[in-house]
Design a protein that fits this description.
This protein is an alpha/beta fold. It is built from 12 helices and 5 strands. It has 2 domains: about 140 residues, Response regulator (Rossmann fold); about 70 residues, Arc Repressor Mutant, subunit A (Orthogonal Bundle). α4 links the parallel β3 and β4. α4 runs parallel beside α5 and α9 crosses α10. The radius of gyration is 19 Å and the shape is elongated.
Length: about 240
């Protein structure tokens, strides 16, 4: 797999003492160790810390202000989407690049809506991951080609959606229309309650309503198509072995 990234000037890297500082956030120790070993092969990248959950990632980003945070999505304590949102809204200069095994549309859009600067899948080749970290630090947005296709499909979907809602926002709105509370929606979709509230805030703004009652009425009036995600809980996905 290859990423569409600008060529890296290796001569300038060798002649510079500045390194790209990285924090790795992943709840699997074997992934953290594998990534550390990979980055040790790059003279211009320095892993300054690792985190095993989202709360640790937020704290380390605030303390160390790394250039790049490699963020897994499915983590205990705080998921990667909410961790990303907290880091971005804090005003941090760190570039958040998601590195995950999830390639479904809702997770991609959730992460990017939260402020992620890139989205990579764990089948990425080691050299491509190194280049992606360098590209993110340079201000680019490394996106896996498969993710890019999902984003194009979503753009077409949004243009046909009368409310202009993203697929995940549509699912949340459907569940609100069924009378589910935020906690129930979070449990059914496998996301945090804070993430549900963030989606609802966006839904209210897009629809021009002020509360969930008005949003539910809008949903019933426009009769959005049922989503399989609104009725089925996401299944656990096997962690990809990237090395």
């Amino acid at each position: 797999m290859s990423l569409d990234l600008a060529p890296v000037d290796t001569d300038s890297i060798e002649g510079s003492t500045a390194k790209v500082t990285v924090v790795i956030a992943d709840d699997h120790a074997i992934v953290r160790q594998g990534l550390q070993q990979l980055f040790e092969t790059a003279a211009d990248i320095d892993v300054v810390a690792t985190a095993s959950n989202g709360l640790e990632a937020v704290a380390l980003a605030a303390e160390l202000e790394p250039d790049v945070v490699l963020m897994d999505l499915s983590m205990p304590e705080l998921d990667g989407v909410e961790a990303t949102r907290r880091i971005v809204t804090s005003g941090s200069r760190s570039r958040i690049v998601v590195l995950t095994s999830f390639s479904d549309e809702s997770r991609i859009l959730d992460a990017l809506d939260a402020g992620a600067h890139g989205y990579l899948l764990k089948h990425i080749e080691p050299d491509a991951l190194l280049d992606a970290v360098r590209a993110a630090n340079a201000g680019d947005a490394p996106i896996d080609p498969r993710v890019g296709r999902v984003l194009l499909d979503n753009r077409n979907h949004a243009s046909a959606n009368p409310g202009g809602l993203t697929p995940r926002e549509t699912v949340v709105l459907e569940l609100v229309g069924r009378g589910l509370a935020n906690k129930q929606i979070a449990r059914q979709l496998g996301i945090s309650e804070r993430t549900v509230k963030a989606h609802l805030t966006s839904v209210f703004q897009r629809l021009g309503v002020s509360d969930r009652v008005q949003a539910a009425l809008w949903a019933q009036r426009h009769q959005p198509l049922p989503s399989s995600e609104a009725t089925d809980r996401p299944s656990n996905q096997r962690l990809c072995n990237i090395f």
